[in-house]
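Supplementary Note 3. Input sequence used for the single-chain structure prediction.
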Amino acid sequence: MGAHVELPVERRRVDVEWHAFAAGAKPAVRLALAPGDADEVASRYAELGASTARTATITFQGAPAVLVYAARTADDAEALRDLEARILARAPDRHALMRELGRRLGYPPCCAAAFVARSRRDTSWRRLLFGRTVDTFQAARDGWVAKPRPRLDDLLRREGRALVSFQPCRYDCEHALEVADRIAEVVRGVDAGWLAWVEGELARPIAVAANGARAFVDLDEEPVRRIVRATAPVDPGGRSLAPDVDLARRLAGRSVGERGRIGGLGARAPVVLLDFRR
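The predicted structure, written as discrete structure tokens, is reproduced below.
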């Protein structure tokens, strides 16, 4: 047998949701999974003594998925599934149901309320090809603050590199930060080196486009604030999403205005910058 070789931090996968739930830092979790992964993931939660419930295969954000809910009791897991089923069916009271779903998942009430407020708006301008609607940009623009807190950076969730699984109402929300700090301490006990690296990744300026694409940027502050270069986020397998790569290619040389607005890309292609540097 050869010696164990530890993967470099950028290639490690730490299941933040699983560890947070196992440690009691989250009351329940909601996971959107590829249909072929649902059984394995549900089994991992069952090993913790959790109860799980799931949907049939649905189209979720433009792709086939199974939503799996894990909670302390079967009643709680089934309640989560039934709440979201009514939301997806556009029940008349769906906005109240969204707030209840957030409460049961342990999200701060203010952040759940902000999500509901966005859901009430006309989202037609955020529809992509194939009918997919992206909320990422609107949440980033609404939550923009001059000094965002890195632990609240939820924009790398697709790469498995976020401490929070919800969109903060503001990127300096103290209630959201309490959740993030609690989860960070759990992760520290699992892999302190990975946590230190991820916190460095979260503490970077990142641009978000109307289609949900994201790109890390390097900034020149003088004489005006301008993007020097941009790169797409990379997942632990070394892959980047095509929309992220396209956004990164278009950002070099662009100026950054008030509330992080990036100019020169056209009114129909808004981009906002969140500068998470400490």
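The two ends are 44 Å apart (CA to CA). The chain is about 35% helix and 15% strand.
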